[in-house]
Write a structure and sequence with these properties.
The complex is a heterotrimer of chains A (84), B (629) and C (41).
Chain A lengths: L9 H4 L1 E2 L8 E7 L4 H7 L6 E6 L5 E4 L2 E5 L1 H4 L2 E5 L2
Antiparallel strand pairs in A: 1-6, 2-3, 2-6, 3-4, 4-5
Chain B lengths: L8 E7 L5 H9 L16 E6 L5 E6 L11 H11 L10 E7 L3 H13 L4 E6 L1 H6 L3 E2 L1 H8 L3 E3 L8 H7 L17 H18 E2 L8 H9 L4 H42 L4 H18 L2 H17 L1 H15 L7 H7 L3 H7 L6 H10 L9 H12 L6 H29 L9 E4 L7 H35 L8 H6 L1 H13 L6 H9 L6 H9 L15 H7 L11 H13 L4 H11 L2 H28 L3
Parallel strand pairs in B: 1-3, 1-4, 4-5, 5-7
Antiparallel strand pairs in B: 2-3, 6-8
Helix pairs in contact in B: 3-7, 9-10, 9-11, 9-17, 10-18, 10-22, 11-18, 13-14, 14-25, 15-17, 16-17, 16-24, 17-24, 18-22, 20-21, 21-22, 24-26, 25-26
Chain C lengths: L2 H22 L17
């Protein structure tokens, strides 16, 4: 599934969900990896704003008001940019 | 009333997990299907009936929750198959009610649009509007309906609100299928859908922008904490055990007194004889030995119901993911395994929520080692023998806790070995879990559920266990011989069986009577209590002065022919170990064969667990003896 | 044989018959056919 690739955004804004600090709000830019279909089904879609609630082995995020826990590997496939 | 000459139309309830489909199903059909505040409660299709306002009968299907029709896990696949009419035994639905969580439209409308694209008449049920309003969401159902082209019914199924409006929408003729807005299946459709949903939600479901910190978040800070979360977990589990022990004491006392009164009454009304013995020793003793534990069973299901409806279970699954991955499982396996503590059969079926086929097999294989509720009467009879103290003490709760922990840890070890042998998955399966909001328990549902399970327990006691107790009594009374007590028993059919069994079970620390009781408990674990009651009955010939001791007291006094006590701490532990590990439930094996897809798994499981139980019991007893216990 | 033994034996025979009949025709009811108490009869 072709979407804008991470390269278009430059290195500064292409951080993964794992790299986000707890309590920060970010907006999803791009999903890349084999799990992106499943991520979208759950609600992690491009342009959606999420807040990271917890990190660690299985990060937890608040997506549109719902708490979702996903594995680190899946979170690695979600590229985000901070919401200023 | 319309003539119901043609077969009733079928409507299906679909939606994301945990949106209240089953609650709605129960409200529509009057059923009492299982609900819980975590995803993965419904894994099977439930069927019921309801009536439109005009009296036309409708068949209602409750489908497992799914995030999307793409369906990566077996339970979701069931839902998809049902929608397309590919599920054997179920007609393709004539109408679909897509249940959405009103607080989650951005995420749930995905599925709704996929369903609408299937060109089946659809109604959207906007459930849990109360929670949406409380969190500040502004909903516009009319706008939603206009944009999507389907009826939209706001509701709160748990409070019964909106049900009538939904039934109104179900009147004949059904609303026609909405115009497909885009061609399904193409990649672009996904994108266009998403943009559409986003815009729609801006208009019809405005939410405050930032995530609102709620009480649930503060609670989760503790309950999901790497250290405090575990402390809380063990504290909760131990509290449940302790609660079961303590609160059951008084009702147990009532039941025991009642049994004593009835037994005394029968004895005073009838002269000594076979019928009296059948009634008192066989029926009362046998069934009584099981029914007396009804309070514990009721309390167990009550606490499980509390935990399941609160929303804590998802947190526990999250905590357990790290530990379980060392066993080759994921946190998703926690919920099926937890269900197995009540009964392995729904636990095995709940494993359908696990995407990885190999992890699923491992979970199914170890599920029987989560000590199920049928073992409770055995544990509660035997554990007090170990401690010689009053019931309700925390020591007994601790022993029970240790029993459950042993079973669980052994299961994890076996799961790890099994996973290694099965090899890695072809496709990666990642952990993902929705943490639902905490909710107050739905007391009415819990009450009905506990009543139902308690009723099943009593019904089983009154039928299967009653029948087996009568047969056991006959086997231990006939053929008759002169002599009393032990001699009479030895001459009977049961005694002879016991004599044959004894060499097999002696190395485990059991005599022929206990061995026979174990054998009979393969019909149903609770029968162990009944058999012991019949086999260790009050000796009639001892005369009228023989006090009617409880079964426990009689067991404590039981002796080997050479005079040494039969139930020593070591032999008791050996017995407990046997019951932790033995698989003694044919219905479970049948379900395992079905869910695992072949009888080989079920038979292998039976053989492995039986052999392991024997070996473990043997090891414990023999090594214990060597160590001087 | 006194009346008690007669009646007792009768009850036993009836029980045995019920069990044998159920063994031979176990799937009369739907579901798994066993009332294990899980509610999925």
């Amino acid at each position: 599934m072709e979407h804008a690739s991470a390269a278009e955004f430059g290195n500064e804004s292409a951080m993964t969900l794992n790299q986000v600090g707890v309590g920060r709000d970010v907006r999803i830019r791009v999903l890349q990896g084999p799990g992106c279909d499943r991520l979208r089904d759950l609600g992690f879609c491009e342009q959606v704003q999420v807040r990271k609630l917890a990190g660690g082995r299985n990060p937890i995020c608040s997506v549109c008001g719902t708490r979702l826990a996903i594995s680190r590997e899946l979170a690695e496939q979600v590229l985000v940019a901070p919401v200023l | 009333m319309h003539a119901a000459s043609e077969s009733p139309s079928t409507i299906a309830l679909i939606g994301n997990p945990n949106t209240g489909k089953t609650t709605l199903f129960n409200a529509l059909t009057g059923a009492n299907a299982k609900i819980g505040n975590y995803s993965g409660v419904t894994v099977d299709i439930k069927s019921g009936e309801t009536y439109t306002p005009h009296g036309k009968k409708l068949r209602v299907l409750d489908l497992p929750g799914c995030y999307s029709l793409r369906a990566p896990s077996p339970d979701e696949q069931v839902a998809v198959d049902a929608l397309t009419g590919d599920l054997p035994g179920y007609a393709k639905p004539d109408l679909v009610v897509c249940v959405l969580d009103a607080s989650n439209l951005e995420r749930h409308l995905q599925l709704a649009l996929q369903v609408i694209a299937l060109q089946i008449p659809t109604i959207l049920a906007l459930n849990m509007v109360d929670m949406a309003e409380k969190s500040g969401l502004r909903l516009d159902p009319a706008k939603l309906a206009a944009e999507l082209g389907v009826p939209v019914v706001p509701m709160q199924a748990s409070a019964g609100k909106g049900i009538i409006e939904l039934k109104q929408a179900l009147r004949f003729p059904f609303p026609s299928a909405a115009h497909a807005m885009w061609v399904p299946g193409t990649d672009d459709a996904e994108d266009t859908r998403r943009t559409f949903i986003r815009n729609l939600c801006e208009l019809a479901a405005r939410r405050p922008d930032a995530h609102q910190l709620t009480f649930a978040d503060q609670l989760d800070d503790w309950l999901l904490h790497p250290v405090w979360g575990w402390v809380a977990f063990f504290a909760i589990m131990f509290a449940v055990f302790w609660g079961i022990f303590s609160f059951a004491r008084i009702p147990m006392g009532w039941i025991e007194s009642a049994q004593g009164v009835v037994a005394g009454g029968v004895e005073s009304l009838m002269p000594a004889g076979d019928l009296r013995s059948l009634l008192v020793d066989g029926v009362l003793g046998g069934v009584g030995g099981v029914v007396v534990f009804l309070p514990q069973i009721v309390l167990l299901f009550f606490f499980i119901g509390l935990l399941e409806s609160s929303g804590y279970m998802a947190r526990a699954a999250y905590l357990m993911d790290g530990v379980m991955s060392r066993a080759g499982l994921s946190g998703k396996a926690f919920l099926p395994l937890f269900s197995s503590y009540a009964c392995a059969i729904p636990g095995v079926m709940a494993s359908r929520t696990i995407g990885s086929a190999k992890e699923r097999l491992a979970t199914i294989f170890i599920a029987p080692w989560m000590s199920c509720s049928a073992r409770l009467p055995v544990y509660f009879l035997i554990v007090p023998l170990l401690l010689h103290e009053n019931e309700g003490s925390w020591k007994q709760a601790l022993v029970l806790f240790a029993i459950y922990t042993l079973g669980t840890l052994s299961a994890f070890v076996v799961a790890r070995v099994l996973r290694r042998k099965l090899g890695p998955d072809h496709t990666a399966h990642h952990f993902m879990l929705e943490l639902p909001p905490y909710r107050w328990p739905q007391w009415r549902y819990i009450f009905r559920h506990v009543l139902e399970r308690g009723g099943s327990f009593v019904a089983k006691a009154g039928t299967i266990i009653l029948g087996i107790s009568i047969l056991l009594w006959a086997l231990s009374t006939y053929p008759k011989a002169d002599g009393d007590g032990a001699d009479a028993l030895a001459a009977s059919a049961m005694g002879r069986i016991g004599a044959v069994i004894e060499p097999v079970v002696r190395p485990l620390g059991f005599d022929g009577r206990v061995g026979t009781a174990i054998l009979t408990s393969f019909a149903a674990r609770e029968v162990f209590n009944s058999s012991l009651a019949v086999l260790f009955r009050v000796d009639e010939a001892a005369g009228e002065e023989a006090t009617r001791n409880s079964l426990r007291d009689r067991l404590a006094l039981a002796k080997w022919p050479d005079g040494t006590p039969l139930f020593t701490p070591l032999s008791i532990i050996s017995l407990l170990v046997f019951y932790i590990y033995a698989l003694q439930c044919l219905p479970t094996s049948v379900v395992v064969a079905k869910e695992a897809g072949s009888w080989k798994w079920a038979l292998g499981q039976l053989a492995f667990m039986s052999g392991f139980a024997y070996a473990a019991s043997l090891g414990v007893f023999q090594i214990g003896k060597l160590l001087g216990f | 044989m006194d009346w008690q033994t007669l009646i007792a034996a009768g009850i036993v025979i009836v029980t045995l018959t019920i069990f044998l009949v159920r063994l031979v025709r176990p799937q009369q009811r739907g579901g798994c056919g066993h009332d294990c108490g899980c509610g999925k009869k």
